[in-house]
Structures are given as structure tokens and as C-alpha cells.
Specification:
alpha/beta; 2 domains; 5 strands; EC 2.7.7.7; exonuclease; DnaQ_proteo
Length: about 240
């Protein structure tokens, strides 16, 4: 059974999980076998503090907007998020940031960390830097590189960023899976070639009727070729 993958993104009040900043939006899109399952989780979260103007300018979420959305505090949804993530491979762009905030919020509630939930983490930022050294590796830059339409991305919202990241991740890894398919086909062919083969071929001798039929056929060839039957010269010479 294929492992669940979750394309994940968060939005926060700032950059520092250890200095009082809080999570304000969570989005996760589930994928198995490189196909989105439709099982997703998207939540707005009240940070229980003010929203800095510079943060709101990035994601468009003010405290008023969150209150209009009746956004719960993290303590009300933390268990739901943890259960959704448990045991999955998390696909995150700049994973250290999002994992740091999730772990901070989980620990405030006494919940297990991402690692303790049995999750593995794939950082697409690190992947991009390895694939394209010296090139821009932001999500915007990767969307441009892989021709992913980001025209609907007005703000850095967690849900739209997950949708874009999902397409980017599939594009980034398409070659790996094509290569894996080729290896699988080669392995299957090799397995067929390794099947035990008989050490000899069984020789079936003709019976008298079959020999007589064969000689009659050669007689016909000899008559139609004016005695130049290719199957009888040596026999004729041997009998001379």
C-alpha cells in the first residue's frame, strides 16, 4: 500500500515560532500514487494575539477577517490536524518553517511533534536548490519554471499555495517516477530472461510415412528444376 503524502502549508503572524508568533492558517492536500484523493484539511486559526501589519500584507488575514470567519483557536483544532498528518509524508516548501510552527503549537497542547506522529518530511525548497543550483528556488520561481498557472494567487494563502506546490512537486519528480517505471520494466524483463531453460532440445525423428512424403516432394522439385534440386546434390554425389 502506498504511503499517504500531504502537500502542506501554513500562514502565521510572523517568522519566529519561538518568539510569540502563532499559526493562523493550515492547509493539507492528501495524495496517494501521485493522485490527489480529495481528502483535504483547510482551517483558519485565531492566533490569540494581534496581527502585525507586515504579516497581514502577505496573507491578507487580519484579526477582523479571522473573527468574521469564526476561526477557532489552535487548541480546538490541534488534535484534528495531528490526526490528519499522522504517519504521512509531508511535502513542504521550506519545511523547517512550517514544521517549527506546527511543533510549537502541538507542544503548547501537549500533543506529539511531527516526528513523534511518524511523519517524514520532504522539503521541496531543498530539492529545488539541488536540482537547479544557483537558480531562484521560491514557489513563484518554480511555478514559472514548470509553467504552473499562479494567476489566482493574490495573497500567500495556505490553500492556494498547497495547490500550486502540489503541481510543482509532481513536475519536479516526474522524471524520477518515469525512471523508476523503466527500472521496473527492465527488472521484469530480466526476471523473464532468468527463467530456467531446458539444457537440450528434444529431437523428434520422422517416421517412414513422413520420410516417404518428403522424398516425394523432393522428386517433384527435381522435375520442376530440371534436376537441380538443392537438397539432393550431395546425396547424388555420395552415391556415385
Amino acid at each position: 500500500m502506498s504511503q499517504r503524502q500531504i502537500i502542506l502549508d501554513t500562514e502565521t503572524t510572523g517568522l519566529y515560532a519561538g518568539s510569540g508568533d502563532r499559526l493562523v492558517e493550515f492547509a493539507g492536500l492528501e495524495m496517494t500514487n501521485r493522485h490527489f484523493t480529495g481528502k483535504n484539511l483547510h482551517l483558519y486559526v485565531h492566533p490569540e494575539r494581534d496581527m502585525p501589519e507586515e504579516a497581514a500584507a502577505v496573507h491578507g488575514l487580519t484579526i477582523d477577517v479571522l473573527e468574521e470567519k469564526n476561526a477557532p483557536v489552535f487548541a480546538e483544532v490541534g488534535q484534528q490536524i495531528a490526526d490528519f498528518l499522522r504517519g504521512a509524508e509531508l511535502i513542504i516548501h521550506n519545511a523547517k518553517f512550517d514544521v517549527g510552527f506546527l511543533n510549537m503549537e502541538f507542544q503548547r497542547m501537549g500533543l506529539p511533534t511531527i516526528e513523534a506522529l511518524g511523519c517524514t518530511v520532504t522539503d521541496t525548497l531543498a530539492m529545488a536548490r539541488q536540482m537547479f543550483p544557483g537558480q531562484k528556488a521560491s514557489l513563484d520561481a518554480l511555478c514559472t519554471r514548470f509553467e504552473v498557472d499562479r494567476s489566482k494567487r493574490v495573497y500567500h494563502g495556505a490553500l492556494i499555495d498547497c495547490e500550486l506546490l502540489g503541481e510543482v512537486y509532481l513536475a519536479m519528480t516526474r522524471g524520477q517516477f518515469s525512471l523508476a517505471d523503466s527500472f521496473a520494466e527492465s527488472a521484469a524483463e530480466a526476471a523473464v530472461n532468468r527463467r530456467p531453460r531446458p539444457e537440450y532440445l528434444k529431437v523428434v525423428q520422422p517416421n517412414e510415412a513422413e520420410l516417404a512424403e518428403h522424398e516425394a516432394y523432393l522428386d517433384t522439385l527435381e522435375k520442376t528444376s530440371d534436376g537441380h534440386c538443392a537438397w539432393r546434390p550431395k546425396a547424388a554425389e555420395a552415391g556415385a
